[in-house]
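Action item from last week, closing it out:
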Amino acid sequence: MKSIKDPSRAPRSHGAHLLQGSILVFMAESLLPLTGLVTASFLTRSLGAGGYGLLTLAATFISWVELAVNSLFSRATVKIVSDAGDWRPVGSAIMRLHVLASAAALAACWILAKPLAALLDEPELAAYIALFAVDIPVFGLAHCHRSLLVGSGKYAERAKISAGRWTTRLFLIILLVEMGFSINGAILGSIGASLVELAIARRYIRPAWRDRRPASLKLWDYAIPIFLSALVLRFMGMGLFMLKILGASAEQAGIYGAAQNLSFVIPMILAVSISPLLLSTVARAIRENDLPAARVVSSNAIRAVAALLPFAAMAAAASNEIAILIFGRHFADAGPLIAILLFAGLAMILIHLQNAVLIACGNPGWTLKLAAPLFPVALAGHCIAIPVFGSVGAAAVTALATFLGALAGLAAGRKRLQIRLPIMTSLRALLVSALVVPLMHLWPAHGFSVLMQMAAVSILIACGFILLGELRRDEIRFFKSILNPLFLRK
């Protein structure tokens, strides 16, 4: 058995690798809000609320299916590859399974397209779902390569394929819609982006289709509970479909969909940027019997999320102006929904991070145990709240359910790995948030000046944390030692 490393040195080594990788992946994934906001603004104006609502319904359904397929393998892949000496047998086996599962999902979507469209009372939706389903196998293969790169510790390469996807998606969607293809053009642009992502990924890692060496039998021990847990978490965002089922119009669905997309875009980028890398890093630390490093890395990840609370409060205070700026005045009703859903997105980050820690510790079943009770809570809440409060009720239920899930995840992580909870960071974040909200209201801004306002307040938030002693000198030196070579590399 390997000896335990010096705790004073180990956290720095693992933490540095995670921090550098997270920054690179976050920078690449940050192209999603930058390009996504431009895309959303373009599409809402080009397609109108009704057309954008149909596109959002089709995109949401297909993304659920893609997440279901990829959740069956992705985190299990990262865990097994992190534990293995040779990724190639696992990579080949999982790539073949991805193709089979994606083909089955594609066929199921084609079969269910018309019944789903009839259920939502939108006959046109069937054709859009059938076309969008073509993206499932392509996206699945690209995501398989992503997971192999993360499990192998190749975080920089993982970042490059995301950068290629989001820039291509923006260009293709605008080009095809402007050419007159309307909703079909937006869908074809998304499929084209998945093809480009797969092509870039194949440059960096190439699992062989014919490699028949036996893969780890632990795959399904991880895959099944993680898959079911991911399905439940995906259904946490079912407010859009529940609204439509309970009688909302396509226009109302479009407004809610726009608010949901905007509110979850940054949180999901952070989750995508950090959670797989956190899983890989913690799994490697545990494999090396380096529990101090695993605890420090996990605790700091949660601490970083707690520090985001004032930024969410700032965005919530400016939500009305943000909605009008990005989507136009006909989407002004999205403002109150954004203000609520921003906090649901923040809670969802914590859920993903805690799930990553539990999987890294060899407890994938815990993710399902924690997520399973949330689905009936959310379903019952939507059925009660939507008929009375409409879209606001759907947003509130989503926020409440994700908050409960985050609390349960924190308790589980503390029990399994003895993670120290960032209580003082949370208190500082609450204090700064309490000052930010009245400041935003006392300093009114409209149009593009909202962006300047938020940039200035963000600087004040950072200064507030420093003045309250959130960052120690040794931590500042640590960040500088990581960031300097990262941004100065040629």
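Closing note: The chain has one domain: 10-488.
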